[in-house]
Amino acid sequence: MTLRVLALSTLFPDMTRPNFGVFVERQYRELASRDGVEVTMVAPVGIAPWPLSRHRHYAPLAALPREERWRNLSVHRPRFTVIPRLGGWFTIASMTHAVWPLVRALHAAEPFDVIDASFFYPDGPVARTLARRLGIPYSVKARGADIHYWGRLPATRKAVLAAGRDAAGLLSVSEAMKRSMVAQGMEADKIRVHYTGVDLDRFAPQDRAAAKAQLNLEGPVVLCVGNLIERKGQDLLIRALPDLPRVTLLLAGHGSDRAAYQKLAEEIGVAERVGFLGAVPHEDLPALYCAADVMALPSASEGLANAWVEALACGTPIAISDVGGARELLTDAQAGRIVEREPEALAAALREMLAQAPNRTAIRKSALRFTWATNGDALVDHLSAIAGKSL
User: Fold this and answer.
1) In the predicted model, what is the mean pLDDT of residues 45-66?
2) Closest by alpha carbon to 78, among 34, 42, 130?
3) Phi, psi for residue 240 in degrees, rounded to 5
4) Taking 70 as the threshold, does the pLDDT of residue 62 lie above it?
5) How far is CA 195 from CA 27, 129, 319, 325, in A?
6) Is the pLDDT of residue 1 over 90?
7) Model confidence band, residue 391 (pLDDT cutoffs 50, 70, 90)
8) In the predicted model, what is the mean pLDDT of residues 179-195?
9) What is the CATH architecture of 208-365?
10) pLDDT score at 89
11) What is the pLDDT of residues 326-338, one digit of tens each?
12) How confident is the model at residue 390 (pLDDT cuts 50, 70, 90)?
């Protein structure tokens, strides 16, 4: 018996954004590798109307192929209209309108058993409508901002809750995220905790001195991996630097706040010790994690950040804020610390962590349960149960 899955995700990489949604891609690759499972990937691409579509952000997206094979996945990329700064029901309706003809045709050719949406907004509400029209069940996964932001925003809150209410089953990246979902009115019995995975062969300890030499780094190094946006808290790390002499801070990621962070570093006199690396290819991240003495990510909200698990898998301790699944992950004090989101607290914690010789084997043990095989097993079980199929 074959389980045919329609995977719906606006978080999915493409040739212009190879790092975008890499964990969603890896999850579905694992799912598609299983015997008796067929995955069709629908990754809608939002583009502003003309003349904004000619902007450097949208023009490369408009040139993407509408259908392709992406790392052994069959991927469809229908376009839908987005209006900058206008979301809510418009985005949901626009995406539904764009996706429906494609999904209807695909379903008519070979019927799907279940829809799996990888994010609560706008994917979840769109999956809800598609599932109703096709008469099949659907699932939605909560990852972080989709619950903490879109699930609370007045313009999208009702749609997010409706998607959760009518789903046959729900997934959550952590127990903490599940509690947030329940607090917002979703049924606890429908929610299954579904931890992320990490490639333990690629993300593994390397000689730290050699890794630093390869990247021309000297002295203590603190790495932060995440989009340069206010929620991730890179500004707090920059403000902590004056109390951390000789420490180099590397920021791996891009985002709207980069210019503001560069200005901040210059104003407080630490610009020469802050490296803005931009969007680092995922395959290059292990070398950075291994070169760093600590990976710090003082986010205001998270589900269970992939960067946390990747750093630990490389034997690098982490300094993170008390958000999402932080306490589920940091069960061994050797693996890192939960720190207040204050520059002074971060500086004190980092100073102590940098003065210690980490037990990299013990640190890595904290990540060993986060495998893609385990992730895939759980997803097959979840979707099979929803679809009423036994594989």
Assistant:
1) 88
2) 42
3) -80, -20
4) yes
5) 11, 27, 20, 10
6) no
7) low
8) 96
9) 3-Layer(aba) Sandwich (3.40)
10) 87
11) 999 999 999 999 9
12) low
Kindly give, in sequence order, each residue whose CB lies less than 8 Å from that of residue 115, ignoring residues fewer than 6 positions away: 5, 6, 8, 127, 130, 131, 134, 136, 137, 138, 139
Question: What percentage of residues in the chain have a pLDDT greater than 70?
Answer: 99
DSSP string, 32-57: HTSTTEEEEEE--EEEPPTTGGGSTT
pLDDT the model gives residue 274: 97
* Ramachandran sector of residue 233 (left: φ over 0; alpha: ψ -120 to 50; beta: rest): left
Mean of the pLDDT values across residues 23-35?
Answer: 96
Under a CB-based contact definition with an 8 Å cutoff, are residues 37 and 31 in contact?
yes
The residue to which tokens 């306490």 are assigned: 327
The residue behind tokens 């606006």 is 10
Residue range(s) occupied by CATH 3.40.50.2000 in the chain:
3-197+371-387, 208-365
Structure tokens at 278: 């931009």
The single residue listed with the structure tokens 């630093």 is 212
The sign of the torsion formed by the CA atoms of 337, 341, 342, 343 equals positive
Q: Which fold has domain 3-197+371-387?
A: Rossmann fold (3.40.50)
Mean pLDDT of 13-39: 94
CA distance 111 to 103: 10
Cα-to-chain-centroid distance, residue 147? 13
Strands of the 191-193 sheet, one edge to the other: 67-70, 73-76, 37-42, 3-8, 114-117, 138-142, 169-172, 191-193
Tokens of 77: 């990329």
Phi, psi of 98 (to 5 degrees): -75, -35
Q: Does residue 181 carry a pLDDT above 90?
A: yes
- Tokens 């002499």, residue? 245
The 3-state DSSP class for residue 248 equals strand
Ranges of beta strands (E only) in the chain are: 3-8, 37-42, 45-47, 67-70, 73-76, 79-81, 114-117, 138-142, 169-172, 191-193, 221-225, 248-252, 274-278, 294-297, 318-320, 336-338
Query: Global pTM?
Result: 0.91
Measure the N-to-C terminal CA separation of the chain; round to a whole number of Å: 7
Alpha-carbon distance of 195 to 121, in angstroms, equals: 20
